Prior knowledge:
It comes from Komagataeibacter rhaeticus. By secondary structure, the chain is an all-alpha fold.
Amino acid sequence: MIPHPCPRPAQAHLRRLLPGIALCASIAVLARGLEAAQMRLCGRVWLEALNTALLLGVGVRTCLRPGAVWAPGIKCCARTLLNVAIMCMGASFSMGAVLRAGPGLLAAVAGMVVFSLSFTCAVGWLVGLSATRTLLVACGNAICGNSAIMAAAPVIHAREEDVGATIAFTAAGGLVVVVGLPLLGPLLHLGGAAHGVLAGLTVYAVPQVMAAAAPFGPVAVQAGMLVKLMRVLMLGPVCAVLSVLRARMARTGPARGRVRVVPWYITGFGAMMGLRAMGLLPPGMAAALAMMATGLTVLAMAALGLGVQAGAVLRAGRPLALTVVFSLLGLMGAALVLVRGMG
């Protein structure tokens, strides 16, 4: 009798991953469809696929409670595929555009990011928010919202509940900023470029920057996109600093000697930027990598939502909400002072 061949380890591992990945992919496709429906019906997107995927994932987790068979694939999307997405994001950014803007603007944006990080950490400490969630809020508000939160989370060993709760609150705050900036614009008495810089300094995602700056003309959109690009470029250095600090703290504990100072995906992020800056990435490949990064990030958001317990989010509500609100107010105030000071 011929024995039935055993599946290879790689094939068996893939079979374990497929159910959870398929579930996350289904949620991601639905989120994309809802985003497209908003554009078709309303002429603009109020809730992006990233945030929609997170909310749908939370809803599925609350109503259906996926069992253990789904867990390996969900974990793969929330960690491995997310890290690949962060690495691919590096191909989206042009160092040439930043260098042409001059060192003064880059220094101002870097200073704003440092201020926002410090101010948010102070607010989180005052209201009693945990250090992990405070750092996640700080990175999200200071740099680029969801992407920064998800990039910083593995560096500081944040739990999926921390990530999901933080993204939920910061996403709500980000939507308020996007809607509020065009309404406040006439009261601020700023020029088109200044409005764009203000949007680039305060709004999270690139499409949201375009939506917030578009009412003030094409110059505002161009200025906002450039400043937003500079903020996103701070993602690598900030995560690297957090990683070094985490490594120093870990060396005093039982895990010393096994700490990776800079995660591989942050190194890959910088390498992708370098390849594009040197002209080694063809435009078509850079565009494909950017699309891949966006798709994998939506997939990861669905996975993070599936790992969030709604009850845990509600229990952490008040300190987290206060930190997000005051962090955004501080960022808006400082950005307005900076824009007026720059003329």
